[in-house]
Structures are given as C-alpha cells and as structure tokens.
C-alpha cells in the first residue's frame, strides 16, 4: 500500500509528537536527578525539542 503525501505528513507529525513526549520524560528524569554534569545533556535535549517543534 502506498501512502499519500497527506498520510505521510500525518505519520511524521505523530512520530514527532511521540519523540517530543519521550524527550520531555528524559528531561524530567535528568532534572530530577539534579547532577551538575547533566546540565549539558539537558541543554542539548532542549535544543532537539526546539528543532522538532519547528
């Protein structure tokens, strides 16, 4: 079965939404641990979120 462009776009949106949800969970875990060395990881994950939200 070949997906139409609209179906592909919707699939990409769903995947991005799921990826953002997972990133949010990871960020919460990192912030909860409150390790100073995790600050860079937290910043990089936030950068990824910004890219995916565009």
Number of strands: 0
Give the helix proportion (percent range): over 70%
Coarse structural class: mainly alpha
Mind telling me the C-alpha Rg?
A: 15 Å
Give the termini distance in whole angstroms.
Answer: 30 Å
Helix and strand element order: HH
Taken from the alpha-carbon principal axes, the silhouette is: elongated
Q: Number of helical segments? A: 2
The parts where pLDDT drops under 50 for at least 5 residues are: none
Beta strand %: under 5%
How confident is the prediction overall: mean pLDDT? Answer: 86
Largest sheet: none
What is the number of independent domains?
1
Task: Give an overview in words.
This protein has 2 helices and no strands. With 54 residues, it is an all-alpha fold. The protein has one domain (5-53). The protein is elongated. The model has no long low-confidence stretch (mean pLDDT 86).
Topology at a glance:
Elements: H1 5-33, H2 39-53
Helix pairs in contact: 1-2
Give a quick rundown of the structure:
Helix content is 81%, strand content 0%. The protein has two helices and no strands.
């Amino acid at each position: 079965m070949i997906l139409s462009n609209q179906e592909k776009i919707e699939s990409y949106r769903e995947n991005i939404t799921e990826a953002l949800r997972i990133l949010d969970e990871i960020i919460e875990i990192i912030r909860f641990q409150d390790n100073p060395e995790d600050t860079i990881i937290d910043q990089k994950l936030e950068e990824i979120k910004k890219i995916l939200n565009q």
